Input
Amino acid sequence: MVTAERITGERERSEVVVSAVIRSRNDVPERMWFDLPAGFAGDAAVDGDPFLPVLALLGMRHHAGIEMPEVSTELRDGCTRIMEIYDAWSTELGDTLRRVPIAAPTRT
Output
């Protein structure tokens, strides 16, 4: 399982940092973050949305399901569809990316 938790948004000098603690038994970063210019502070998503696409690739690579805080329904469904495509391509190419489950509450 690859899990994102303790998602925070902090305003620093000239930027906003949105970060999450990542837990996994596999070799993945312990913390993931996005630096945004301070002007985007009002638009920064302090939820699972920014992290799901990246964790989807990590989960596929390590064959580990994903556990997240709340994400948008559209994003979760889109990531699921993209995983299906990557899985098909990966199989054709002899690679090991596999679709994995996403455990996350959704919002509309």
